[in-house]
Design brief:
- The chain contains nine helices and 16 strands.
- It is α+β, with helices and mostly antiparallel strands and 414 residues long.
- Among the domains are: 130 residues, C2 domain (Immunoglobulin-like, Sandwich); 134 residues, Immunoglobulin-like.
- A hairpin with a 4-residue loop joins strand 9 and strand 10.
- The radius of gyration is 31 Å and the shape is extended.
- The termini are far apart.
- About 23% of the residues have low confidence.
- This is Synaptotagmin-4.
- Keywords: Calcium, Cytoplasmic vesicle, Membrane, Metal-binding, Phosphoprotein, Repeat, Transmembrane, Transmembrane helix.
Length: 414
Amino acid sequence: DEIPAVVGIFSAFGLVFSISLFAWICCQRKSSKSSKTPPYKFVHVLKGVDIYPENLNSKKKFGADDKNEEKNKSAMPKDSLHLDLEKRDLNGNFPKTSPKIQSSPDLENLSPKHFAERKKDSVSPDSLKSTTSLSSEDKQDKLGTIFFSLEYNFEKKAFVVNIKEARGLPAMDEQSMTSDPYIKMTILPEKKHKVKTRVLRKTLDPAFDETFTFYGIPYSQIQDLTLHFMILSFDRFSRDDVIGEVLIPLAGIELSEGRLLMDREIIKRNVRKSSGRGELLVSLCYQSTTNTLTVVVLKARHLPKSDVSGLSDPYVKVNLYHAKKRISKKKTHVKKCTPNAVFNELFVFDIPCESLDDISIEFLVLDSDRGSRNEIIGRLTLGSSAEGTGGEHWKEICEYPRRQIAKWHMLCDG
C-alpha cells in the first residue's frame, strides 16, 4: 500500500514541475518577442520611411525618451528628410496643425543645392506659411502642392521616384468638406510605366511616402522623359474627381549627384480642346436569311488628345441593343499611341427577330489606361431612331440586305 502512495506523490510533484517549466519557457519567449525590434524590411515596406539600419539600434527605433529623440534630431544631417512615425495617425497621415507647424523645419533647412532645378512655378515651404493671408478667391484657385524626390540607381540601372506628400488639396466632397486623394503617375511620352499610390481617406494633406522603381531605363534617356502626376479623389459611386495635374520635364535635371528633392504647385487639368471627337469607319451587313448582323470596325482617325502626351491608346467597344436592352457586346484590340488607328476586326451578332426596327448598335471609342478607368473618347450609335449619318447608314443596311456597306461617322461626346 505504501508503494502506490509514494509513486502517486512523485507523479504529482513531476506534473507540477513540468507545468511550471512549460509556463516559464512561454513567458521567456513572450518577453523576448515583445522586446524584439521589427525587422528593417517590414518597417520600410509598411511606412515607406527612408531609414537605414546602421544608424539605428533597438533602443532608438521605437519608444525612445525625449532626450534620445532630441539627440537623434541634432545628429541627423540637414539635407535629409525625416518623417516622425510617432506623429502619424492610424491612416499614416500627419495631424493637421497650424501653418507654422505644417511646414516642417527639416524642409526649411534643406540646402539650396537640392532645389537648384526648381522652376518659378515651384512652391517653397515658406510660401505655405502665408496661405492664411490669401483672399478667399486666391484660395479657390490654389489646388495644393506635391512633394516628391527623384533618384537614379546606376548599379541597377533604375529610375526611382518617391511621392512623399501633398499639401493644401481642395475638398472635393462638399458634405464632409474633405477628399480621398491618391496620385496616378505616368512616364511620358511612351506611357509604358503607369503607377498609382494608395487612397488616403478624408484628408487634405496626404502623406503617401511611396517609392516606385522603374528598371531598364538608361540614364541617357532620362533627359527625354516627362513625369505626369494626376491628383485625384476617390469616389465610390461615380467616376473619381480630378483635382489637378503636374507635368515635370526631366530635361536639364541632373541626377548624377544623388537624390533630388522637389515640389511643384498643382494646376488645373489641361482639358483637351477639339472641334470633334474624331471619326470612325465601320462596315455593316445584314443577312436576312440567317438573321445575323456582320459588323466590321475598320479605322479611326483624328482622335483627340487623351492626355498631355498627345497620344491615345484607343480601342472600340461594340454593344448590340434590342428594345433598349443590351443583348451582346464585343471589343477590339488596343492600338498603342496613335490618333489614327487601324482595327480591321469583324464581329457577327445574332438578331433575335426578323425586323431591325428594335435593333440598335453602339460604338464606344475608349482610351486604354491600366492605372484607372478607361476614358470614353467618343460615341456612335446606329439604328432606326438614330440621327444624322447613323440613321442613314442603318436605313441603307435595311434596304440592301446581304450587302456590306461602309461609311465614315463623326463621333459625338461620350
